[in-house]
Amino acid sequence: MADRLTLKDHFFESRLIMNRGILLLVFAGILVMILFSRLFYLQVVSHDHYTTLSEDNRVKLQPIPPNRGLIYDRNGLILAENLPSYRLEITPEQIDDMGATLNALGKIIDIREADRTRFNKLLARKPGFEAIPLMFNLDDEEVARFSVNRHRFPGVDITAGLARHYPHGNIAVHALGYVGRIDEQALKILDTSNYRGTTHVGKIGIEKTYEDLLHGKVGHQQVETTAQGRVLRVLNRNPPVSGHNLYLTLDTRVQQAAEAAFGDFAGSAVALDPDNGDIIAFVSQPTYDPNPFVNGIEYKAYQALRENEREPLFNRALRGQYPPGSTIKPFVGLAGLELGVTGDHSRTYCPGYYTLPGNTRKYRDWKRTGHGTVNLNDSITQSCDVYFYDLALSLGIDNMKNYLRHFGFGRATGVDIVGELPGLLPSREWKRRRHDQPWFPGETIITGIGQGFFLTTPLQLAVSTAALANGGRMLKPNIVYAEQAANTDALLPHLPRPQNNISIGEQPHWDSVIGSMIDVVHGARGTARAIGKNSPYRIAGKTGTAQVYGLKEEEKYDASAIAEKLRDHALFIAFAPAEKPTIVVAVIVENGGSGGAVAAPIARKILDAYLLDPEEQPEPEQAGEATPDEEPTE
Amino acid sequence: MNIALSSRHEDASRRGWQHSLHLDAQLLFALIGLSALGLIVLYSAGGGDMALVERQLIRLGIAFTGMFAVAQVPPRLLLRMTPWVFLVGVLFLVAVLLTGEISGGAQRWLNLYVVRFQPSEIMKLAVPMMVAWYLAEARLPPNHWQLLAATALIAVPMLLILKQPDLGTALLIASSGFFVVFLAGLQWRVLGFFAVVVTAAAPAIWHFMHDYQRQRVITLLNPESDPLGSGYHIIQSKIAIGSGGLFGKGWMNGTQSQLDFLPERSTDFIFAVLGEEFGLLGIVVLFTFYTFIVVRGIVISIQAQDTYTRLLAGSLSMTFCVYFMVNTGMVTGLLPVVGLPLPLISYGGTSIVTLMAGFGILMSIQTHRKLLAT
Predict the structure, then answer these.
(1) What is the pTM of this model?
(2) What are the distances in angstroms from CA B312 to CA B304, B319, B361?
(3) pLDDT tens-digit readout, A300-340
(4) What pLDDT digit, counting tens, does each position of B212-246 carry?
């Protein structure tokens, strides 16, 4: 070791290390300069860019959903409202022992297993400071029971939100429709920027038709949040604009009376104001309660509604297509008069059946014994089929179709409720297009009494009857008469849009047909004279019976139900007071049998509800006396 | 440079307390200043948590005490202890691999029942000491055989630490050993040869890397490839620094830091908090402290009186320099994310004690010199 040390050149070594040390310092200096350039680039050159990114991190835009517009009936009675809905929420970071808390809560309020599962799923996903809903739609008792015990549950809270509620339950549900949670399908159609934060959207009915008006405009607030999304403060706020309130033409009192009048029957009734097309009642029976649909109906309950063979979900007024039966006779009669094919005094002999020239096939009248010699008035009043077979043949299918088309048959009415079906007014062209077959004269004959291919919806029948009642003015039916912007008193009326009027050839023709319809109710031999007897006002009407010749495609074959299912549909159209009509109704009772005995009394109750003061309405008279009525034609 | 060289001409009376306490005033005040800056930034990074600052203050107290204690050990004694310290350190490393406690996915801790510590920390000092001890015995510059032996002295502890795995510490230890060899006069052609070998071996190194280490390299090259995963740290720290601008957003006002966007902001990423709240100006102040300390360390090395202390002082100073440059390089997105704290600023335990012990050695070297006639 000693000799190695002597070999060391201390001066050389210290110079070597000093040089190397300085070299390292210079090298380190270069690296520091590189680092500094990097920092200069980040903090000076790109400062604006990173400031923007930092602001984007910090400031979040939060949507504030608007309050949905309310829906009132024509008297200001609320039909769709937003009720405070109480949710039980838990903020996990404030809970020490979640299991114990849930058990203790369970002793106060019944927590469903499904709620627990959903809560646990959310618990795993959400940050601890965010309140997680445990239960929705708490009832008053649950709220009260929790409130008393609140001090025992720090971190558990009840919060109030707004939820759509239909206070009258199943009343007018087919007109109102309902809202439901936004699903994938709805998301595709909706303007997602305006629906940020919105949970529900109109699914059917008015709620859907007027979705744009009812929804309103989303508001926003800028909030400062932490990286986990906890809101620290609101920086600025752009409030939402609530949806417009809607005022319906519907009269809940009449609607209720109409729905009640159906009893256990399935069917539909539509009442209109013949002056402007306002829908007074819009009935489809049976109905259902829309409230369970708002927050997602349970699968079992939905399945029960779907599989119910009386089809409560089916909107009969809008989508039920029925043969008009004899209710078409006033229109065909008017066609005959206006087109000069028949006259008030033209007579036809009715032996109880009709045959085409050169053909032995008998087209039966509902009255086997025949009506004898009848004119147009007799034929409408007593609903003679043979007269109209003959008239239809004289008119021809082309004339008949063209004239009936003026009354809106075979066309959607354009009502402001989505999903309407157009019915069917058969013609040569239609049959060739649809069935690739020529038109047969026999089909013309049965079209004359509203059978065969002919289909109308209850709404359409009401609109056609209104045109008869108001002297040929075709109306576009409407169910909303005004809207009201949020926080204003002013009502913006929805004005009826003018439609094509039906040209009147000679006023006496119209008067004659209406006179015959009055005789249907008030004449000695009228098919609906039972409802005319004690009526304080005069009614013009027409009974009808529509054959059910076959099950609808979607129906299952059920031997016990088939007898009733095959029974005829009973129809009645009417307007009153006959001299200056203010209301028109069309009633269809499925499998009701006789128009005069079943459908007409329902119509009478609707008319009474609308025309009479509630106090002076007569006790409904039971149809004790059997009224002669038409029977099914071939 | 003049700050450092001036001490040579200081008169004995002015150096009195420094000599009797074996402290270097310039280094001491720079370290205290740096620690104070660190506590201020830490208070903000912890969201105003005074308890955090107090714990760090206690740690600093222990570290400074340790530094003071080490400064009292004369370099001669240090020289004699060197091989034993090294040997014990290597044994501890082996023990860690066999019995050590696993924490955070790595096996770094050794529980001696009295104290729980990381043996790799000892090696931060033991490796440069050992290599300096070995090379100082022979003539400089070292010949090829001596270089090979020195490489072995560096490689054994480095590989043991890599196995834990602790890439950051392994890197520090390798560089501290390298600095000794370089200062001892490593021939340029040998350095060139090593550079070529390392470059050629890069694919092999890649092969032996852990998946998370590879991921860090990929992230460095393109942090936006996974903005919410591995790229998140780098993206958020760049946003924090960049949005700080020239003068910063102000103390306790950094939105990236205060609103939790910046991860690990009290520890490895505390530099980004400084950059956001104090801007480029604050960073210049920090860099000035670091530069001063490194330069002062090199001056101590130059003024040292024998080869062992010169090599050791130079290596310790440059390793400190690597320390802060790797951390800032990582936080600014120039280097891959390696778990190295920002020295004396980051909140953290063992490493601060080792670091200050290193400064204790520097002070000892500076203050135990015999005054020679010039």
Answers:
(1) 0.69
(2) 10, 10, 9
(3) 888 999 998 889 999 999 999 999 999 999 999 999 999 98
(4) 777 777 776 676 666 666 678 888 999 999 999 99
Q: At what angle do helices B119-137 and B75-99 cross, to 10 degrees?
A: 130
Residues of A labelled as active-site residues: 326
User: Whose CA is closest to A585, among A248, A267, A265?
Assistant: A267
**Domain locations along chain A:** 62-248, 252-611
* A17 interaction partners in chain B (CB closer than 8 Å): 140, 183-185, 301-302, 307, 310-311, 314
Entry field: residues in chain B:
374
From residue B231, alpha-carbon distances to A53, A87, A447, B219, B332 in Å are: 15, 39, 77, 6, 13
Would you call the peptide bond into A286 cis, given omega within 30 degrees of 0 as the criterion? Answer: yes
* Structure confidence by residue, pLDDT tens digits, B256-266: 888 888 988 99
Please report the pLDDT score of residue B6 as a whole number.
47
Q: Is the pLDDT of residue A352 over 70?
A: yes
Domain residue ranges in chain B = 2-10+22-367
Q: With beta carbons less than 8 A apart as the criterion, state whether A241 and A216 touch.
A: yes
Angle between helices B270-303 and A10-40 (to 10 degrees): 160
pLDDT tens digits, one per residue of B264-317 = 899 889 999 999 999 999 999 999 999 999 999 999 999 998 999 999 999 999
Q: Is the dihedral of CA A448, A466, A264, A422 positive or negative?
A: positive
Instruction: Round to whole Å and give the CA distance between A376 and A334.
Output: 10
CB contact under 8 A, B259 and A224: yes
Subunit contact B239:A16, Cβ cutoff 8 A:
no
Contact (CB, 8 A) for B253 and A224: no
Interface test with B, best of A43, A45, A224, A230 (most B CBs within 10 A): A43
| Most confident residue range from A218-232, A443-457, A540-554 | A443-457
The tens digit of pLDDT for each residue in A240-259 reads 999 999 999 999 999 999 99
Query: Given CB atoms, is B85 within the 8 Å cutoff of chain A?
Result: no
Return the CA Rg of chain A. 37
Tokens, residue A86: 């109480």
The three state secondary structure string of B276-309 is HHHHHHHHHHHHHHHHHHHHHHHHHHHHCCCHHH
Exposed/middle/buried for residue B316 (C-beta within 10 Å: 0-12, 13-18, 19+): buried
The domain defined by A62-248 folds into Penicillin-binding protein 2a (Domain 2) (3.90.1310)
Rounded to an integer, what distance in angstroms lies between the CA atom of residue B279 and that of residue B261? Answer: 18
Would you state the pLDDT for residue B370? 77
Q: Judging by DSSP bridges, how do beta strands A178-181 and A78-90 pair with one another?
A: unpaired
CB-based contacts of A54: which residues, under 8 Å, 6+ apart? B239, B240, B242, B243, B255, B256, B261
List Cβ neighbours of A544 (8 Å cut-off, separation of 6 or more): A324, A325, A326, A327, A328, A383, A450, A570, A571, A572, A573, A595, A599, A630
For the ranges A143-157, A278-292, B241-255, B315-329, which has the lowest average pLDDT? A143-157
* pLDDT > 70 in chain B, percent: 87
Chain B: residue whose CA lies nearest to A232: B259
Q: What residues form DSSP beta bridges with A236?
A: A222
CATH class held by domain A252-611: alpha beta
Sign of CA dihedral A619, A623, A627, A629: positive
Long-range contacts (CB closer than 8 Å, 24 or more residues apart) made by B62-66? B62/B353, B63/B352, B63/B353, B63/B355, B63/B356, B63/B357, B64/B31, B64/B356, B66/B353, B66/B356, B66/B357, B66/B360
- Which residues from B are below 8 Å from A34, CB to CB? 334
Least Cα distance to B41 among B286, B243, B351 occurs for B286
* Residue of A38, A224, A227 lying closest to B334 (CB–CB): A38
Q: Determine contact: B261 vs chain A, CB below 8 A.
A: yes
